């Protein structure tokens, strides 16, 4: 009897293993694509002239920000508000808190987070370019910046801040301003700047 056309048990087993491998690879690949699609809006910054990558503030850094805001009240804006944790914490402490963020996914995530934390309506989030915003009415400004952002933002704030405003910079300092207070804590470092000093210096130099 000829052996042609006869399939051995070993061939069947090998074929079954190949099919299982292909199915598993497809599942893993599909999951990776799905995860990337969901995560990318949070990890990657929105398209902007100066890139502000989404790097969540640590609990220590949030705490340091509010140590330098002790005794302060009124309005507060977080520039590049990310997932909204600074704005939500500010709302819980009685500030009229607003977050400006270009990434629409993070704006919606922050709004949902505000609902979850019970501060919906007290913590507001907007998709806004910070260089198109006006800071003349604000009492407190928080910025998690990058080095290339700080010089142009320093100039804009120097022209627009009211005299009693306070600016808190996280991770990176402004290039020429002198801080009134500092908490040195590595990547969680924060610096406070008083607008009355900034504005007077700007007018004097102008």
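Sequence proposed for the structure above (206 residues):
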């Amino acid at each position: 009897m000829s052996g042609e056309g006869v399939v051995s048990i070993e061939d069947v087993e090998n074929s079954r293993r190949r099919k299982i491998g292909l199915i598993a690879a497809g599942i893993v690949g599909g999951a990776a694509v799905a995860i990337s699609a969901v995560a990318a809006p949070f990890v990657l910054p929105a398209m902007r002239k100066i890139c502000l990558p989404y790097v969540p503030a640590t609990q220590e850094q949030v705490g340091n920000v509010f140590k330098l805001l002790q005794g302060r009240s009124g309005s507060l804006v977080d520039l590049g508000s990310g997932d909204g944790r600074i704005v939500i914490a500010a709302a819980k402490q009685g500030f009229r808190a607003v977050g400006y963020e270009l990434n629409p996914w993070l704006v919606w995530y922050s709004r949902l987070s505000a609902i979850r934390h019970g501060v919906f309506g007290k913590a507001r989030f907007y998709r806004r370019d910070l260089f198109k915003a006006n800071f003349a009415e604000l009492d407190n400004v928080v910025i998690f910046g990058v080095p290339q952002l700080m010089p142009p933002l320093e100039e804009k704030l120097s022209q627009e801040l009211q005299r009693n405003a306070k600016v808190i910079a996280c991770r990176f300092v402004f290039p020429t301003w002198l801080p009134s207070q500092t908490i040195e804590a590595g990547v969680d470092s924060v610096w406070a700047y008083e607008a009355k000093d900034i504005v007077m210096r700007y007018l004097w130099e102008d």
